[in-house]
Task: structure prediction
Amino acid sequence: MTKNLKRTAAFTALARALTAGARGGPSLGARLMALPRMVGATFRGEYDGGLRIAAMAAATAYIASPVDLMPELFLTVFGLADDAIMVTWLAGAVLAETERFLEWEALKESVIPGHVVG
Result:
């Protein structure tokens, strides 16, 4: 029963993330399309997401790394726990950071460039 409840909660959270655009927040597609712009703006020094993007890149490398395959062979389910934790953190980090970036991008577009005359 508990396992089923946790699975249901995970699918409910995923469904909420996928339909967020219908409730006024950015959709998952909009967030994913913002990733390259976010990385570009960070490398140009316009956006302050450098450390967060580096952490997300490190988490992606850790998840994709073949070095971690050996513990799964010997530890089975327990060997997958670290990967599951990293995937969960990475998904949350991408959702949070892309939302922050999209808000920053919208604010940036609403500002008229110029200077203050005193």
